[in-house]
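Researcher: I need the complex structure. Ligand is 5-amino-5-deoxy-1-O-phosphono-D-mannitol. Inputs:
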Amino acid sequence: MCGIVGYIGSKDLGAVILVGLEKLEYRGYDSAGIAVIHNGRLVVKKRSGRIGDLYKLVNGMAFNGKAGIGHTRWATHGGVNDINAHPHVDCKSQIAVSHNGIIENFQELKLELEKSGHKFVSETDSEVIPHLIEEYYEGSLFDAVLKAVKRLQGSFALVILSSMEPDRIIGVKMGSPLIIGVGKDEMLLSSDQMPLLSHTKDVVVLNDGEICVLTQNSWSVYDFDGNPKQKYITKIDWTVDMAEKGEFSHFMLKEIFEQPEVLRRNLEYYIRGNEVTLLKDFNLRRLLLNKDRILIQASGTSMHAGLVGKYLLEKLARIQTDVDYSSEFRYREPVLGQNTLVIAISQSGETADTLAGVKLVKENGFEVLSIVNVKDSSIARESDYVLYINAGPEIGVASTKAYTAQILILFLLSLEVGLLRGFVSEEDFSRMRDELFELPGKINDVLCESGYVKEVATRFLDAKHFVFLGRGINYPTALEGALKLKEVSYVHATGYAAGEMKHGPLALVDKDLPVVFVNPKTSVYEKSLNNIEEVRARGGIIISVASSGDLKMEMLSDYVFKMPEVNELLTPLVSIIPLQLFAYNVAVGRGCDVDRPRNLAKSVTVE
Ligand code: M6R
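Model: Output:
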């Protein structure tokens, strides 16, 4: 995880790097630091805490050099303290490195470097890097970096600065993301697009095994043997205001409210008249039509979207679909074959386990389709085919708008394949298309009830545990509702298939346990009513998500979040909205840092 940034140009060095780090703070936020050139020397300022704390330390200092680097940390090796914060430096404080990733052979390198007289001060794996570069330095930073990176095992993106060559910064990519921002009289390096937006729209995305050298007016890319590589500039299509909170108090809330717009955007983009255009790539279309099994691999919320996808693909396209956590998939020799298509789902496109899953499939000689938000991200680039969810930047650590956008893409995919395979009639297709276009309005209706959700949330600020239950296509909604609550409010919550309650978890129910039932009108509605009765009979407190006008649910529940009636297959897109709002409001009420929950980071780029 961690975010790294580098800048070379004539703007206020400290300010540019600190603002850049703020934009990357969602990637890790336990400590932060900068290293800049000032009076021809390296000045390093770093400390544990948030970027706000680093601002205080830097205290508006003006630096007269042109180059600097920064880092925001999510600790892996070594505790959270000032010394372990990045950037790390060599013995003479002439080389500074910001590192994102893990150096797996750092112990062995450290021993070797200590024997040669290098002195280490931190407990991190990253500190070996500046020492290794120092060891190899013979008058050319670039040559020293080339030699050093060949010794590193693991995943790393590096931004390197040296007072010996203050007219350049060097970037290295192997496993973790790194992008060059090509500006006018300035160049930048960053883990993602966000810090670049206010400087330039022109970027060069680095691939694994590439090193770049940036000066104020030039950029060049090489392989690890020092051979020049031809690279092309691409344009960022996100804007600065897309990455701002605007009138909202938190990114999570802004992103929850953006959902109608994100869905509308995707519908207008992917549906043209009587056609879904997701499979306009002939090869992708052929690939999907020739498979009789789909295997979805993803992590966290994206995996929950995949579970909804299973219901959709099986129901509409009649393709057997299995869903796996990427962290399990990658280590268990999954059965792959010519008839199986693997789909990877990832908002960031950088999740290490999901990326490893993609690589595993490719190594076995099969193709991968990915469903991704961030353009040109590692998963997007490693995959044979990509469907973008067009959700715009998602900054809150808790994924909200990406989840519904992922489900929408899975719905459209299932619909198109179903149509092509003859399982969906033209008539059904037209009806569902109309229902899809009504969705943004229906989600807006639910968002209009946010005041009530807040009121209910306020009553549960002291609850210690929650159980979330759902059946059928809303079983994943229960899992996702529970995940949202626990990650932002630190309250224990478990999601379960409603029909499984009596096989064990029913023992948990007493008068203090809030049980959230997701039970809109669907084909398993009546079955869930029985499960609600079972909980009621044992005194549990019932909060439900139910279709508007459902008097039975109103009678059975202590609190009801109402949603408009929608086609059963679309219910997960609506039923999750009140649960996102509920999690948000419980977290705010409990004083939690909603956008940056403790111990988490937005992109999990380590195993
Ligand atoms: O970027 P990805 O979709 O691959 O991320 C996967 C998970 O890390 C992510 O969904 C995580 O579970 C979220 N914090 C959940 O809100």
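Model: Summary of the prediction. The pocket of 5-amino-5-deoxy-1-O-phosphono-D-mannitol is lined by residues 299-302, 346-348, 351, 354, 397-399, 483, 487, 603-604 (CB under 6 Å).
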